[in-house]
Amino acid sequence: MNFVEEVKWRGMLHDVMPGTEDMLKEEQVSAYVGIDPTADSLHIGHLVGVMLLKHFQRAGHKPVALIGGATGMIGDPSGKSQERNLLDLETLRYNQEAIKKQLSKFLDFSEKSDNKAVLVNNYDWMSKFSFLDFIRDVGKHISVNYMIAKDSVKKRMKGSEDKDAEGLSFTEFSYQLVQGYDFLHLYKEHNCKLQMGGSDQWGNITTGTELIRRMLKGKAYALTSPLITKADGGKFGKTETGNIWLDPKKTSPYEFYQFWINTSDEDAEKYLKIFTVLDKAEIENLVSEHKEAPHTRILQNKLAEELTSVVHSKDAYDTSVVASKMLFGKGTKEQLETLDDTTFNAVFSGVPHYEINANILKNGINIFDLLSEEAPVFKSKGEIRRLVKDNGISVNMEKFTNPDALINSEYLINDKYLVIRQGKKKYSILFIK
RNA sequence: GGGGGGAUUCCAGAGCGGCCAAAUGGGGCAGACUGUAAAUCUGUUGGUUUAUACCUUCGGAGGUUCGAAUCCUCCUCCCCCCA
């Protein structure tokens, strides 16, 4: 498999240094992608880089995932990073392990593979480097003129066309040099000749190739991916509730599945190419099938299936499908009553829970008091009134249309809870205590 | 240093003594149509046990008035022009 070709047709190629393709044909090398260990989980924004490594490994080369323990402390001036917090070592190691576990779902780290994936942390070599040694051995080789010519730096300089530019600290300025040194280190230690990343990383990567050329007379390469966009201009990977994480504790498999199911038609094909390993013919097939019968949403279903299965499990995927059918098909009260615990949790884990006193249901309670005072699902009674009038509230999957009706114990599902739905997608659960 | 303009509900932006909880647009929410999409259309968008009612809101503090987002005084912040 030709790695560059592969990445190109998948729409994951923004820029590549001339000669990269030929170099990869000649020998088995390593390539790396940097990941900030700011949390103990990856989110789907990291997935492009991970998939680059995945295809790299599929092409017979060795992928290296670099945890930016050191660089993460400095803060990349590309984009509008703010001041970073220094991670303590314990957290850093913890995050590193958690991230490795997630990466292993995509990459093969097993010893027996002759191109096994490797995880490294630049903290391990940078922390021992003294300032004096660094500026003497590394800084000497790169001129300030070269460094300030980078877009990421130029944009931050006072007097640039960007009037909000606030200048940048020496710390941030030196970021590219530290990242450049990472590349040099991996070049020496792991025969790493290629660094990959988002298109905003181009400047930082080329500082690395430059450093390698000057210090080692070596030749190293760069390859970047376009930043993922959505057809409607929104930011990819974010929902109202925040990031979509790979960690099931942060984003439930059900929510994860739902995220992909909700992809728009315009984006689905693009995402299928980027985030799955399906080959070209297979994807083209799906696209034409989808065009035949758009309402079946083959692309979205496939996307959700592939991603949920890889990141979570086949079981988690199956459960999510059942849960979705239940919530978005014509779910009924009877179906709710027959939900088993696993499915129940899958469906409602990401949903707000409220506790209410069992007594208040004994004599029945009107919906306004119940949903604003007993369980603050809504912020005012007026809002509830409006929604009821507009047919916007369902109790236990049944439209609640009569504002005078009282809710009593008979409404409880399995004597334990009530399911409140606002509109089509927003659920709340009221448990009795 | 001198002169001028402005601060309005989530945002933009009307209103310039009572008919203002405040036009209009955007956004949000809901409904219809659908494919848990897009587009479109409709309703709704401060609070209060259902309201031709009351309460809280128009940068802050006072004042004038039967009555102020609207007039006056002081303060705070923003913008523009001249030096």
What does this molecule look like?
The chain is of the alpha/beta class and 433 residues long. It is built from 22 helices and 15 strands. The protein has helices at 3-9, 20-26, 47-58, 71-74, 89-103, 123-126, 131-137, 144-148, 151-154, 170-173, 175-190, 202-216, 253-261, 265-275, 280-292, 298-311, 314-328, 333-337, 341-348, 359-362, 367-374, 381-389, and strands at 15-16, 30-35, 62-67, 118-121, 192-198, 221-225, 238-239, 242-243, 353-356, 365-366, 393-395, 398-399, 406-407, 417-422, 426-432. Helix 17 crosses helix 19. The radius of gyration is 26 Å and the shape is elongated. The termini are far apart. Residues 160-164 have low confidence and may be disordered.
Task: Produce a short descriptive summary.
Helices cover 45% and strands 14% of the residues. With 433 residues, it is α/β, with parallel strands linked by helices.
